Records
---
Amino acid sequence: MGRFAPSPTGLLHFGSLVAALGSWLDARAAGGRWLVRIEDVDTPRIVPGADQAILSDLESFGLHWDGEVLWQSQRTGRYRAALEALRAEGLIYPCHCSRKQITAASQRRARDGGLRYAGTCRNAPYVAEGGCAQRVRTHAGLICFDDALQGRQCEDIEREVGDFVLLRADGVWAYQLAVVVDDAEQGVTDIVRGADLLDSTPRQIFLQRLLGYPEPRYLHLPVACNAAGEKLSKQTLARAVAALAPSDALGLALEFLGHAPPAALRGAPVPELLDWARGAWRRDRLPAARAASAPPGV
Ligand code: GLU
């Protein structure tokens, strides 16, 4: 079972189409189910209506999903239950540190650019007041996994990231916790997504282990970059992929994924293109890089 889990912070761009198509093909080629989950917990960043626009884009690209779409904003009770289960084991503590204090105390940056938390509040006496972040206690030791495309990955999260936030001071649930709870509850076995999430995977595996969840298999696709070498995103002003004809966009995304359709299929209708791709899909045709250039004009 695979899934696509977009954050509705903007329109679907070429990079998000690549992630959706890659996970859809990987699931469908194996005869598996494919789910869609709207990751809308980071409320300040959510763009109203972006969820519906993403869903209608997926439909126009022929990427139909199984079952009901899940909205994370409706599942905060599940995240609370997971947090309390960890708290009962003494693994959660409140953190009052301001960003300024964290920066001053931190001596290193994590691989994803975030600051390592130095553990300032770790041994402070417990205060059950609201308005502070909740962190999970990490411990030393390597967390390793074999990514189906990027190879073996290892990280000592205690050393490199430190105790990380599961619930922010402003009441927003952290992606790391929500994604793990939902993937487990939905029975996701195969996670195919962009390599921008490779570095947060050890944190997710750490939480899966603490919560007694099974560990899914991971495959991280190369991230699509613009001519300046930046990841396509709202911040880098990536265009909406819906501006292209669906079969053209799919053809380009397939080529990006090492599955250029044969010339005879140029301009073919979406279902025909997807039928061909499902039959042709082979993981060993994927480019094993963390990033690759998007085609011009997307
Ligand atoms: N919601 C995350 C994002 O759009 C992706 C989550 C995932 O696939 O694990 O970056």
---
Amino acid sequence: MVLSTNLGYPRVGADRELKKAVEAYWKGASGLADLQKTAADLRMRHWNLQKKAGLNHIPSNDFSFYDHVLDMSALFGCVPARYKWDGAKVTPELYFAMARGNAQVSAMEMVKWFDTNYHYMVPEFAPGQTFKLSSSKIFDEYSEAKDAGIETRPVLLGPISYLMLGKYKGDGETPWGALWDAILPVYDEILGKLAALGAEWVQIDEPCLTTADWDGVENVYKTTYARLAQAAGSTRILLATYFEGLNQNMETTLNLPVDAIHVDLRRAPGQLDKVLETLPSDKILSLGVVDGRNIWKNNLSASLDVIEKAVAKLGKDRVWVAPSCSMLHSPNDLALEDKLDHQIKSWMAYATQKLDELATLAKGANEGRDAIKSALEASDKVAQDRKTSPRIHDAAVQKRMAAITPDMSQRKSSFDLRQKKQQEALGLPAYPTTSIGSFPQTDTIRKERAAYKKGTLPEADYLKAMKDEIAQVVQWQEEIGVDVLVHGEPERNDMVEYFGEQLAGFTFSKNGWVQSYGSRCVKPPIIYGDVSRPKPMTVEWSTYAQSLTDKPMKGMLTGPITILCWSFVRDDQPRSDTCKQIALAIRDEVQDLEKAGITIIQIDEPAIREGLPLRRQDWDSYLDWAVESFKIGTTGVEDTTQIHTHMCYSEFNDIIDSIGALDADVISIETSRSQMKLLDAFVAYKYPNEIGPGVWDIHSPRIPSQDEMAALLQKAAQVLDPSQIWVNPDCGLKTRGWAEVKPAMLHMVNAAKAMREKLRKAA
Ligand code: GLN
Ligand code: ZN
């Protein structure tokens, strides 16, 4: 029989119960028992939901108080020395200290989980690292479900991915061999215990397997899994891969001594034929056909085509239906969306709805299409609707897309010439000062915006409040002597949402929360149709701000790649097309700003680096369309209009060619925390355009001194031409308070003045 299975369920709860409970616990507003009760209730609710939907394999240990990779570190007792752990059990206090740090000790590093917007806590390995079973979470949760009459499939991250995702903190090369030798006995122990508890299946995730291309991949996986299979005894192993196809490791993976293998057929549908051909006859194939990372309904008949093909080759007993990856990356329950447009909602599915899709697909595979006739009809209708709906397909946008020509991504003149013209037009001093766009979003501003959105503050009052705010920050910037002013973005809630709300083709959910890290959830905009700009979005704000000063007022926009990366996107056209549609809208906005007399325009692209595909061989094509999109957005202006871009949290080494190809007149980046180390890529590349290396770490409440910032500028001046250098903070200041921003900005302006003085003396 074809089984319906799940790889993981969103843990935060439909009403973000876990977030609220964890934060209350952190604040001391509730005790550990309350937190544990909420957690247990959520787990039980989610297991029951899956049981009710009719799922045959339900995961456990997919729950986490903070992060599942941190859970693994707790499981192995992989606790960095700075936490002064006694080596007994990893307590909740210690666990949260590792997650978030506290007054005495810093948190563990956090980075993005593959190409998702989820962040995991990076395991840290010390010289002589040992591992020992130090948490009973995985066993407790299995037993908890079992006691409630639900047999679950415990999930754990595999040893190779766990080690690969960590960082060795000693000198020299990572001692892989020693780490392996140390960690495998703990896996043996875990699997042995699960077997003793009676677990029928265990799910071992090895997402790193899809991209691994180091020497000896095959050998390491083979040896490891032969050992784990032995340790698992009567418990059978599902090895799960996701986020990419098996690619070069297809043979290796499919021949590992495990009982079932999961493949992601949403990300890599093309691998199916080869997988079916290669899979040894003793193994079960888990088909990831329902997208675990998106919010669209599954096309059931298309999925059934895939499942039936697999069944024809393998037989029903060797085929499972599954989501492409854990549903951790999907919002919880669409039923709670009472404000969404009806038709758009009819195209969507959140995790709860995806469970039904999985069960329906398995039923269709087992009993034939007739058994799920009405579900298939409904699904076909949605597919047809999305193919033809005028709300999705906009002929005017299509026409513009077809008319994109190469000259639409070229400035009129080369940078040298533009630079001269801009110098003449703008008359800026050396080391010009500016900031990235936002100023503190004070409680007053937030309250005013919330009241306006709720309808309790009339529009005229709201506009006046924001304009007053702008007038104040303009005056203050003039007073302290900033060269290129910003209006402070008080009217923006979020740098993507603000634009999405004004663009056609976007909608917003009320409850579409997805965990980003720990208790933090994000609610990405939903791009459902062709994107266009009904009317100018920022021109009034920018021209108002410009009217208050003779200094240049910089206009700020979010770029097409970032808008794309931080939204739920359509699955019915390539991402590159959606990106170019957004780019055309941004192009119009840039041109309108220019027409309105704004001479400096910044297009923020903090997400360009994170948008990189997982496999290096896919990078070029992504970078090609990403660069083209940025240029479509920014090049439709006169030479005298100065285009800035801004990028934060990025390492540039891998993509510096493309950063150069963006041909922005000025780029500002985050460099202060790395003490200008991130500049290296620009130096090695001989980056020709102007650049503002951030001199103030805005993630910290600390106020840097003038000397400190001047020292960073001095460092930059040693490797760049002083005439290239701009002076700015690392990023926008919306999360900071005025008590920090006022002195720090003044210190920054004075640091720039000191640098100018030095330059004058040297001349
Ligand atoms: N212009 C935005 C701001 O200043 C940029 C934010 C970002 O790069 N993350 O807030
Ligand atoms: Zn930034």
